[in-house]
Amino acid sequence: MTDSATSTTSRTSAAEARFDRKLIGPMVLGSILNPINSSIIAVSLVPIGRAFGAPTSQTAWLVSGLYLATAIGQPVVGRLVDLFGPRRLLLVGAVLTGVAGLVGTFAPDLAVLVIARVILGFGTCAGYPASMSLIRTEAKRTGLASPSGVLATLTIAGQTIAVIGPTLGGLLIGLGGWRTTLAVNIPLAIASFTVAAIFLPRERRAAAPRAGANLDLVGIALFAATLVSLLLFLMEPGVTQLYLLAITAGAAALLARRELRTAEPFLDLRLLGGNLPLLATYARMLLTMTVSYGVLYGYTQWLEDSRGLIAAQAGLLLVPMFVVGIAASAISGRRAEIRAKLVVGVCAQLVGCVLLLTLNGGSAIVLLVVIALVFGLPQGLSSLANQNAVYYQADTARLASSSGLLRTFTYLGAIVASALNGAFFGATASTAGLHDISVFLVAASALLLVLVLVDRSLRKTPR
């Protein structure tokens, strides 16, 4: 290592040591509220359906409601973080999360429970964009150009929760029934509110009325209309639903016209249009999550329906994927470069999708474990790389809303993957259907690899 490189590493380590560690607790607690509620519901759907006598098509709204609220709410709350600061939004988010936990715990029917999940989606929106804003502010204060270690901590926390979420849900249901999976949000909300109130510094911001005047409510409403109509179509695509695409196009056109004529728009289209690297990151995230959730949903269902495994066995086969993902994030997290993470992650994703094409009803357990291990690499590398890219590429004044928009594309990918399952699987998750999905995912992975290789801006990212 050269003297210059050694000096740079020393300065980075020293600056990172000065990073206020009291902020880590509020950031991690705020950031895990959404992933824990996204994962814990997986084991709650069946008992909830039995309790209310509801079919799968209705209980699916417990998942879709959270996704819709989060996809819309992340950039909206991110913009509020940009205007009012992270502390206030984390406190409000914690209150909404607690309210959602109370409503869900005592929900008399499925409709009220879906409403609770929607409130939960909005309440858990603040954690990620607020954390990104806090990291940027602290990095500026300490002179830390690349807070990759702190960024990796957020990623690892979310991945860990994804692993333990279903297990925690099963334990809670065993102790007190499915309502405990909603009630758990009450102590989590209290803890999140308390640590944010104690450890986060108060923002020195303009008075609320003046800041509120800069909030583009019309733009937010048009953005929500565009996204809701699009997501509703993606969840149940079909000829009879084409009117939703017409609504999407109309709302998007009005949104573009509004934002281009507004002094302080909710979505600064001029800024986004001039930031091609950031737009490329959003496109990568959409493709990455389409493949990731396509495997998580489709492969898992196939394991149970066609490979003949019980739910517990299928869950155990996913553990190696998450373990490798956490390890990959931990090992590579302190390195700031982005392109290498993406290349390795996407290549592993492509190899894994090709391996899915070799599966049949009698595939050996060893092959299933190998597939899980291969998909663990993109699980740990790709999301972390795209998160780091947004940190460097986004405009400083809009980092929180830009980070929130990254999460919107994450959930768009999840809903596209869910639509793939509906399109290619019939009454059961057949091997033929899995192969059809795999062909689509191979094509998506190949396109993703091309986007990574041709993006010259990735080579300029600070190391």
> How is the main sheet built?
none
- CATH T-level fold name of the largest domain: Growth Hormone, Chain: A
What is the domain tally?
Answer: 3
In which range does the helix fraction lie?
over 70%
The CATH fourth-level homologous superfamily of the largest domain = MFS general substrate transporter like domains
Gyration radius from CA atoms, angstroms = 22 Å
Shape: globular
Structural class: mainly alpha
- Low-confidence spans: pLDDT under 50, at least 5 residues? 1-10, 205-213
By DSSP, the count of extended strands is 0
* Individual helix count: 21
**CATH class descriptor of the largest domain:** Mainly Alpha
- Summarize model confidence as the mean pLDDT: 83
- Series of H and E elements: HHHHHHHHHHHHHHHHHHHHH
For this structure, the quaternary state is single chain
Distance between the termini: 15 Å
Portion of residues in beta strands equals under 5%
CATH architecture of the largest domain: Up-down Bundle
Characterization of the model:
It is a single chain. By secondary structure, the chain is mainly α. The protein has three domains: 20-210, Growth Hormone, Chain: A (Up-down Bundle); 216-265; 267-463, MFS general substrate transporter like domains (Growth Hormone, Chain: A), CATH 1.20.1250.20. The chain has helices at 3-18, 24-40, 45-52, 56-59, 61-84, 86-105, 110-123, 127-142, 148-176, 180-183, 185-199, 208-212, 217-235, 242-261, 269-273, 276-305, 311-332, 339-356, 365-393, 399-424, 431-454. α5 (61-84) packs parallel to α8 and α9 packs antiparallel against α17 (311-332). The longest helix is centred in the middle third of the chain and has 30 residues, at 276-305. The chain is globular, with a radius of gyration of 22 Å. Mean pLDDT is 83; it is low at 1-10 and 205-213.
